[in-house]
Amino acid sequence: xxxxxxxxxxxxxxxxxxxxxxxxxxxxxxxxxxxxxxxxxxxxxxxxxxxxxxxxxxxxxxxxxxxxxxxxxxxxxxxxxxxxxxxxxxxxxxxxxxxxxxxxxxxxxxxxxx
Length: 114
Prior knowledge:
single chain
């Protein structure tokens, strides 16, 4: 009976290793495919953790609401507004620095004339 038990354990262990290898290979293939798609279509690099979190967020949103679409639209609008505000702030800062430099140069020029 010991031989049958040993053989059964070996078979079970081998099957577990095969299933694990297949699952890991399948996961790697899926991630590779999605990652390549994101790179080609959107010119972005997606980390595996990002993909996992995105899927979890979508699933949780379906189960518990509110719609991920609504949150995506809000996030997209907020990101666009933040980008616009950043660019405006940067431009205003550059203009202010330019004015200060011009005033400094004018003062130095006037100092040399005196």
